[in-house]
Input
Amino acid sequence: MDYIKIRLTDDFDRLEAKFQKTVSDMFHSVNPMYSFSKSTWYPPLDIFETPTELIIIAELAGVNKENLDLEINSRAIRIAGRRIGVPPAESGKYRLAEIQYGDFERVLYLPSAIDTDSVNAAYKKGLLNIRVNKLKTESRHSVPISDE
Output
């Protein structure tokens, strides 16, 4: 059985990556040919929520499972990796280039806390399917009031 790397962490604040994305987006809107040497693309996601679990599906066609990285904490999930491009024929030239290659990253801040011990991730036919159980939370908690 093959496994996808899952790393549990609390460090989702990557200020440098956020800054680079902001600057890249700003310049890209002025001139689409501008980009950092490491461009980042964002795979499309579907997120389903049931009363007991969250199901996240990422479309990652053409990405090798070895190039995927999945980090999880109780309130967020980070999906990152790299899609390697196919070199064009030496005697040809591009007429259309819409497929995005290079590094990608998606950080999802979850609507409810999850149980990081019950994560299940599978990658098949270009789709990464992540299933996590929600933590049961009390909707009401009584706090006793003292007379001092």
